[in-house]
Amino acid sequence: MTTIQAIQKMEVQPEWAFSRRRAFLLTELQGIAEERTGIHKYLPQSNAGERSLYLGRLEDLNKKYRSLQAKLYNLENPGKGKISDEDIESARQADITKYIPGKIKRGMTTCFSHEDKTPSMLVNDNWVWCFACVKKWNTIDVVGEIRGLDFVGAVKYINGP
User: Fold this and answer.
1) b/e string for 131-157 if b means 16 or more Cβ within 10 A?
2) What string of DSSP letters covers 84-108?
3) Taking Cα atoms as reference points, which of 152, 158, 160 lies closest to residue 67?
4) Is the CB of residue 43 less than 8 Å from the CB of residue 56?
5) Are residue 39 and residue 69 in the same domain, yes or no?
6) What's the average pLDDT block by block, 10 residues per block, for the chain (161 residues)?
7) What CATH number has the domain bearing residue 152?
8) Which domain covers residue 100, as residue numbers?
9) 28 exposed, middle or buried (CB, 10 Å; 0-12, 13-18, 19+)?
10) Does 53 share its domain with 111?
11) What is the model's pTM?
């Protein structure tokens, strides 16, 4: 059911419904951002088992965050530049090595986010992990960071015209 259909079914004013939906999405995004920050704080001092759990939770949070970002964008920009869940998933699964600016050697490269003299970034098929930044990026995050694009722009850039 779309937001418009839900509004019609509930018989409420569209402006009120959109403002409530927007407030809900922003609150959810803020909560996820705070939880991710907390995890990044404890990640460096965690042992291998804890780190695995933290990284799994971060992956789940990042998926939810991206989905909520797309929903908020579509709510605030009706009919303009919409992206579907399929677009997001396609971009997320794209080969990240196409977008990494540095030379990749034995699965490692220099980080694009800070000055690096030696490789500190582990490269996988569709994600990277920087040991210096203690941060994980997927393909959408990398393209957004390097190209200066927002979430929707990065998805569109990866998927092409």
Assistant:
1) eebebbbbbbbbbbeeeebebbbbbbb
2) -HHHHHHHHTS-GGGT--SPPBTTE
3) 152
4) no
5) yes
6) 69 83 92 90 86 88 85 74 81 91 91 87 89 89 88 88 68
7) 3.90.580.10
8) 90-161
9) middle
10) no
11) 0.54
